[in-house]
């Protein structure tokens, strides 16, 4: 805790873990919203999060890419770092971690009432879709 506080990451870490407590990454499978778990291209299929993902990233996909690397607790329970870059619910602590409209909308997909306008400003810092086929739905 002291090192998280000293590095200025304590607040983001608490918010991230509270996201899991609310069900982000932890209720996806039980809610039938996670496909391809354990494989090369796991995806979150919630309609609200997918709509926000498509709008923000300028794509037309049927789901949101979920982390496909890391061990238990990272893989299949976070947004894909290589796509989202710095976002609160990726599995890696780096830089500023805004809560995007995708994350807020995913809470709507699991049953919460959400205000998407309360999400943080988010600009994807991950991959270039035109050059990375792993981001495409298969």
UniProtKB/TrEMBL annotation:
Organism: Hyella patelloides LEGE 07179
Entry-linked InterPro entries: Peptidase_M8
Alphabetical list of Gene3D superfamilies matching this protein: Leishmanolysin , domain 2 (3.90.132.10)
Keyword Protease attached: yes
One function term, GO molecular function aspect: metalloendopeptidase activity
Entry protein name: Leishmanolysin
Cofactor: Zn(2+)
One GO CC annotation: membrane
Pfam family, one: Peptidase_M8
This protein's UniProt keywords: Hydrolase, Metal-binding, Metalloprotease, Protease, Zinc
